[in-house]
User: What shape does this take?
Amino acid sequence: MSDIRFRVRGPGWVETVTATPDWTIQKLLDHLREKQGAEPAALKYGWPLKTIDLGDLSASIEPLGLKGEAITFVPKESAPEPAGQGALASSGPAFQPKKVEADSTVIEWPEKDGYLALRVMPDDNSCMFTAFGGVIQREDPAPSLRREVADYILAHPDKYSQVVLEMDPQRYARTLQDPDRWGGAIELSILSDIYDIEICSVDVKTQRIDRYGESKATRCLLLYSGIHYDRIAFTMELSLPVEFDEVRWDTGNDVVLTMAQRLAKQLKDQHYFTDTTDFVLKCDVPGCGWIGAGMADAGKHMKETGHSALTEMKIT
Assistant: This one.
């Protein structure tokens, strides 16, 4: 009897659940009540978003096809999220991907008889690692990818010196293991070398494409929205699970880059980005009190102090 592993995301928490095919809806609710101390108003999953029928508590979860899925736990005290948003984990700093309408997250690709789609990652400060982890089809990829990048840095001291990292390499490798530490250009470049793949980061605000590992034979696409990374994938049908996504392309295929830029432009029109030049941040580490503006200030503060518990200040 094969286990069924899936994630459940609620307000401020994310849990990986390991169930068996004989679990019922009642068993799932009992598990969530025991682990999270809350009852859901609804459980939503899949793409397009579907709602699990909580009316038949004796029904088995096996026909739902939850393996590898991410389920949104909609609390009773909150209104359900708009269709198509998925759950955005809110652990760690309060940087969340902007919300967009469901039909803004895909574009039709008639020549391939399918769609280029945005796969939204949890906003748990490991979004870049999680987005890339889906390319290499690794479950819960962030911890292992963080370790691999850290080992690579220490194994290449000439390339990744204190001058390049703006931090002692040993300290950089150590702080990278912190699940609240963001990944960026350095980590993307290293992952490109480790996995021999070109990583293209498509910027929502400018539609610019930054390439890491241009000499590689295959490429993958990530979407960068200022403080967050998501994955870009091709799917034949929007109802198919993400396991069926096409996430690798030959680097001679530039059509996919054009399509990705079109998707980014569509998302920009929905303001699915954070302008990192003028937003105000504060450090939540007790006793710190630091306040700065933009990612440049944030990056400097994190490198100087190792603090990563930063949140955006709402200015009215």
In short: Residues 77-95 have pLDDT under 50 and may be disordered. Residues 147 and 177 are 7 Å apart (CA to CA).
